[in-house]
Design goal:
The chain contains seven helices and seven strands. By secondary structure, it is an alpha/beta fold. The strands form two sheets. Strands 2-5-1-6-7 form a five-stranded parallel beta sheet, with helices on both faces. A two-stranded antiparallel sheet has the order 3-4. A hairpin with a 2-residue loop joins β3 (about 35-40) and β4 (about 40-45).
Length: about 170
């Protein structure tokens, strides 16, 4: 199975698509790899981002789409490992929508503050990103699920799965 890696900005709909297409996608949340709990509390994992890239590599060929973080260190380690990826992020003028979505989905105050204070900086970095295969900017009220080629890939793959299941039932 050919795998597409999508580096998606927070709130672009990675988890929603993963929940809808569990057999075809993986939402590889970098926070599960970048932090560890110690006696002192939550600290950066010294193995990050190498542990994260190894996880991503282990999924290649097993799922159709792997959603990954847009963090600069993640994008760099993808490039260092010659792993092609599609970069998806919102237009800068979508901040109000995304901030509202973050609040509604239950993100904590620290995350809300980080995104509010750094929105322009994060989007500027992505606008100037080099080395990704494709760069897609989401306009207002558009999410990864609205990208035509992503919709088509998932529809085709789901049809294949469905037809494969039907064939097995018939035998």
């Amino acid at each position: 199975m050919e795998t597409i890696i999508i580096a998606g900005f927070p709130g672009t709909g990675k988890s929603i698509l993963t929940n809808e297409y569990r057999n075809l996608t993986s939402d590889s949340d970098s926070s599960k790899f970048s932090w560890i709990m110690t006696e002192e509390g939550k600290v950066r994992n010294p193995d990050f981002p190498n542990n994260y890239i190894e996880h991503i590599k282990s999924l290649i060929g097993k799922v159709r789409i792997i959603f990954v973080s847009t963090h600069d260190v993640v994008r760099q380690v993808l490039k260092d490992n010659n792993i092609e990826y599609v970069l998806v992020y919102p237009s800068k003028n979508c901040k109000d929508i995304y901030m509202n979505n973050y609040k509604n989905r239950g993100n904590d105050d620290a995350f809300l503050k980080l995104m509010d204070q750094n929105w322009d900086k994060f989007i500027n970095q992505l606008e100037h990103e080099e080395g990704c295969s494709i760069k897609l900017v989401l306009m207002r009220n558009k999410y990864i699920k609205d990208i035509p080629f992503i919709k088509k890939i998932l529809e085709v793959e789901e049809e294949k799965l469905h037809n494969g299941n039907e064939e097995r039932k018939g035998n």
